[in-house]
Structure formats: structure tokens, C-alpha cells
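Checked the freezer inventory, then went back to the computational side. Two predictions to log before the end of the day. The first one is the construct we discussed on Monday; recording sequence and C-alpha cells without edits.
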Amino acid sequence: MGDLHRVGRSIRHCFIKENGQRFYGQLLKPPMSQTRNSTFFNPRRILKVDKNQRIENGDVFQMMDGDWGLTFDNTEGYYRDSIYRTFGVIIMDSCFKWKRRISEIDPLTRQEKTIGYEDLGNLRCSMEFVSYTDDSLKIPQPRYRILCGKDIRPGDFLDDEITVQHVEHVMGITMAYVRGKNIV
């Protein structure tokens, strides 16, 4: 088994995480048996790393071609290996200015009021079309979700035009449903 481990090390690449840390691994295409999930998160790759590499679900890293990838839990269907760990990878295709509303309780009315906005920097994410939903006038509106590794919350603003509506934590990443003007 040691010889196979040495061969695996010879074909790995150096990747750089968003925070500047380096790690070594190998990007692979998923096997055909795993493509049934590709409609849920697309496009996907498999990241194979040594078990001592410092990488976790929700990490963002730059790939060899310059694109950015987001790791997610992809252990289902893979043999747990004593040498390697595997992660699914989502290609990050969007980057937005991210703001969060700062509010306080008005002492007179006891209602929450906005006192400003906190700039949280840029949010690198993947944006996917989900479906059309009818608004209050029964006009179909497109619904999108974003996938990222950050702690976004309902009510956050992206590029001042997109509002985060609902947030779920799935497979080690954050999935948020958004709406707004001129999405994509």
C-alpha cells in the first residue's frame, strides 16, 4: 500500500485556499454512478487529498485553471480510505459585494430599525437557477440559489440588488435562496 501512496503523491497538484494556505491534492471527474447528484450541485469534481492535508467542507480554493472551487461533503458512495479523503467540488462562478443590515430596537416604539449596513467584503459563490415561482400577482419570477462556504443569513444583501431569503446548511456548505432585480 505504501507504493500506491507514493504514486498518488507524484500526480498531485498544489492548490491555494482563499486564505492563502496551500494544500496538495488531485482533481478527478466523478464516476458515472455519482452523476445522479449533479443536478443538485453542478458542475462537480472530486478532490482527493492525503488524510493529513488541512482542508474541510466549505473551504474555497483556486484550481489549476484559475477557477475557484468550493469543497463539500461527498463521502456517500466512496470507500473510506486510511490514506486519502475525498470531497466534492463545486465551481464558483459568481462574486458579489456582501452587506448585512445592522439594526437596533427603538426604545420608544420597541420595534427593530435599521441603523446602517456592515460591509462584509466579497462573497465568492456558485449561483444556480432553481425554478419559477409566482409572485403575489401570479407573475412567474425566477428563483435562484447560491452555494458558498460563508455564514450568510436571511436579509443579507448581495450587490445591493439581491436579497437572501432562506438559508440551509447542506453537505457542509451553505445553500441560500435569493431574489432580486437583474439576477444573472
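The second is the one RB wanted added to the comparison set:
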Amino acid sequence: MKSSILYYILSSSVILYYGFGINRLLTIKTDYKTYIKSLVKALLITASTTSLSWCLIRFVLSALDIIEFYPVLTSLFFIVISIAVHAFIKTAPIDITEDYAVPFIIILISLNEGAGIVSSLVISLSCIFSFYLLGVIIFALRRRFRLFGQEQGFKSITYLLISIAIIFIALFSWNASWFTIGLNQ
């Protein structure tokens, strides 16, 4: 269980590996209180939608042999739960396209990769934590670049993208098994 959490937060982060939500992370301009509210909202939406969708897939769709319809039904669950959670935790005006695209993609990935309800929940919650952890890192990098000031020819977004590329290399360079392909034969 611990290895799955660390795997999906760090080394196989959906955000870092597939690139989902990087454009969203680069454009977030909120304070820390709103960011924490957004994290809690994403965790509630992701956990409840993942568990309800998994139960629907396991007990209803697989019994009827129509598993192909799970993305449509998951999106319906997702919209209803998102609106309900947003009614209790208001961070900004509701915008399904911007704020909820990343959690929905994470839910679909966790349902595809999870073997059971617990593993699907672990995957989805770890991916949400990964997204918001990378957001904190980007906040720190933005503050750091503001301290340096502007150099000629480079904008702060360029520094930010270069820093994200370095983070990608640092997290994925440990898997250098392709260096020893010829030695194993």
C-alpha cells in the first residue's frame, strides 16, 4: 500500500508522466487558503466518484455485461457530485472545464488501473496529492523567480518550464535500465 502511494505521488505521477494539468498548474493564481479548499474539494469529489463508479462497474455494469458505458456513467456521477460538493465548499464560480478536468481524468485512470476499490481509491487520492504537491512546488518556484527579478530575454514562465523539466528528469532518471540492455545478453 505504501509503495503504491509513493509510486503514484512521485515516480509515476499522472501529472508528471502524462502531463495532465500542467497548463492548469501554471495558471493558478490563488492564495493558500483557496488552494487548501480546492484540495479538499478535489479529494472529496475524487474519492466519492471513484468509489461510486467502482461499485457501479462491479455490481451493475459487469453483471449486465455493458462495461463499455462506465465513462458516461462516471461523468454523470462526477458532475452531480461536483455540483453538490461545490455547493458546500465554494472556491470560485463553478467551471467544469477548468477546475474539474484533472480530477475526472484521474478518476478514469484510477478505475482503469485499480484492481479493487481500495487500490482505485489509493491511486486516485495519490494522484490528487501529486497534482497539489506539484502546485506547491510551482508556487515556490514562482516566488523564487520573483526574488531574482527579470533577466533580458527570459520570462518567468520560461524559468518555470525549465524547472519543471528538471523535476521530470530528476524523478524519472533513476529508471536507467535501458543503459544495461547489452550487458544482460
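For RB: The mean pLDDT is 79. The longest helix spans residues 32-64. Let me know if you want it refolded.
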